[in-house]
Amino acid sequence: MRYSTMSAACAVLFAATPVAADPAATPQMQFLRGTVTGVSPAALRVKTAAGKTETVKLAPDWNVQVTKPVSVEQIKSGSFIGTAEMPQADGTGRSLEVHVFPPGVKVGEGHYGWGLKKGSMMTNGTVGKVVASPQGRSFTVSYPTGNRRIVVPPRTPIVQIGPGPRSLVKVGARVFIPAAMTPGGLATNSVAVGANGSAPPM
Prior knowledge:
mainly beta, 2 domains, 1 helix, about 5% helix, elongated, signal, DUF5666 domain-containing protein
């Protein structure tokens, strides 16, 4: 797993986890997906999808990013998106989820390893022409170092990302947390939470 690349991507995607002053000392990342079981001013306790309970320290300036399910029609030409995807034999990527950024926001551009499933990749970039078919939507995602053809099958989770209040991070909330492994344990300054009980799909 390419921690340095993914930590950089998460840093800009979620206004980031702690980063060391010395790049060589940048902490490794863990990506926690699960449900909040405990909240305090300085930490969260999360039961992960794997059934393990983790405690994550919160930075004083920690922020919340809300993922809200939307329809596939929100993916338009010119949209800036991120998608976890599985590379296919024909060179395309089959989307596992899509997150649509607010207008004017372009972060984490590129194509790099991800940890949603074994072999999955993350592609962030600007959408070209969108083509609809019975198999779903397809489009090219362009980023500074290249472009990638993405196919979004029907029923693929699609969300919009935007800032939200800390009060949404409560017991029972489903979250995605990019956390840094520090000498004092896991730490973050950003938490993604699903709107209305949904799970962040990243």
